[in-house]
Design goal:
Blueprint lengths: L11 H16 L12 E6 L5 H12 L3 E5 L13 H8 L5 E6 L4 H8 L4 E6 L5 H15 L6 E5 L6 H10 L6 E5 L8 H9 L5 E4 L2 H4 L5 E4 L10 H7 L18 E3 L20 H19 L5
Parallel strand pairs: 1-2, 1-3, 3-4, 5-6, 5-8, 6-7, 8-9
Helix pairs in contact: 1-5, 1-10, 2-10, 3-4, 5-6, 5-10
Bound molecules: N-carbamoyl-L-aspartate.
Length: 305
Amino acid sequence: MRNLIDIQDLSTTEIEELIGVAEDIIENPKKYAEACHGKKLATLFFEPSTRTRLSFEAAMYELGGNVLSVTDALSSSAAKGESVADTAKTVSCYADIIAMRHPKEGAPLVASLNASIPVINAGDGGHNHPTQTLADILTIHREKGHFEGLTVGFCGDLKFGRTVHSLISALSRYAGIHIVLISPAELKLPSYIKKDVLQKNGIPYEQTTDLLAVMPELDILYMTRVQKERFFNEEDYLRLRDSYILTPDKLKTAKADLSILHPLPRVNEIAVAIDDDPRAVYFKQVKNGKYMRMALILKLLEVVL
Ligand code: NCD
């Protein structure tokens, strides 16, 4: 039985297969409409979510399956003190697959060690978010057609932004990738990721606080929200939250074929005026997330069509 806890749980070939299935779903949705008939997905979300939970649920419905849902910690037995392990054992009695989001790093891993059904990490604290990475990867693939040789800028909260951690880990498999890390000094990418992912794979990277200085180099600009919920004090959050606000003016020196991604939700970091720029692909990214989650559910449930 397979789980998806970390993006490294998938080989490069498997990621390519998921892209292939997602693109086939986009072309031939009817073929998949009953693929998960009689199967149930449990979405266990102990942290806020709009896109991730709803896209998992939409994905399962579009595969002809059903959904059981915990939408916040307070409405489940977690509020009574139940452990993640016991929750996983319990939900295994009702469902066929679990997607779990949890504020504690490692909670979906603990769930996977105790569940008798596949577990998908839908975001664990400030750690990882592998299914957002699948959405990001399909978006880059559809916009650029390749990963090799791209210069990818990550801007904003690189310390707590779990989507950044997982996407860097996925991209570091491809040749010629160049990573540009743009953040305030306080929100730099954690050193364990620089060491264990970037340096270990020989990925060239630069760190800067200045988005405008690096703008002309970028093929992809991955904007992120400053992760308010991970701060220990409000003052630091208020000081750092508007460090980067992307406005049309700042795109003047950007490449004509830049792709601007954002996992969403956005707060202030991308002006709404950018939404109509053809380089803004963050709403396409939302849609791609649903197709990749459909492909992932099929894979983990070992559905053969
Ligand atoms: C991200 C997350 O939850 O980490 N959102 C998402 O799943 N699309 C990004 C964020 O909350 O800033």
